[in-house]
Input
Amino acid sequence: MRIKSILVHLEASERGRLCLETAINLAGRFDAHLTGLAVKSPFYIPSFAAAQVPPDIYTAMNEEQDLRIAKAKEVFDDVVRANNRQDRSQWVQAEGDIATAITDHSRFSDLVILGQEDEDKDMETYQSVPDNVILSAGRPVLVVPYIGTQAQIGQSVMIAWDGSREAARAVYDARPILEQASSITILSANPKRGEDAPGADLARYLSEHDIGSTIQKTVSDGVSVGDLLLNEISEGGYDLAIMGGYGHLRLREMILGGVTRHMLEHMTIPVIFSH
Output
């Protein structure tokens, strides 16, 4: 696999700029085409209050969204121009549900980049965007946390390995990044009894592609696997994590696995998820 087309979802915020800087760095590294996507989404107003909202409020909210999208485009154009990527970049604007719009455009990309859910946002308007994209896109999704400032990623990488289909897919999807990493740690949490070298088969697979790695296993001792991974990330000084995105869709409702949900809520470094 090669990364030749990157889609980044943009907002007029510091996090949106960090997503863009991460995307432009990866686009330059792999000489990939970059698409910046902004989505004008429907307003959420509780049904019991909708009839009491004056029309001019709707107009003001609509104009505010237009201004934010215009600002996001201005930042996109500035960053693209500063990196001399005008001929390898494009701007796209969509309307509707944010997750649906990102998913629709992701079909033609090798990697999707978007921001972590902001805990201060109205969950009715921003609910489960990363979750739904991870489970629906059919593409690796790089989620950038709303804390932190590092746009250069992929030098020190942790792979959260449990031998599952999702984890194997994530490693395969991230292989172009792994090929350029300086150090890679394969972390197995709570390995099965008698499993002396969890991750050894993965290390062997990576070595066949001239990718070096080290194996580490750890036991949670009562700590959740999600917190265990976060502790290892903090202690190891990694700049990128790779893991499977576990869960499924049921009647259009996103059902996400506990470890994936925990990482999405508490992540401190960018994470590539594959489902």
About this structure: The first helix runs from residue 14 to 30. Confidence is low (pLDDT under 50) at residues 250-254.
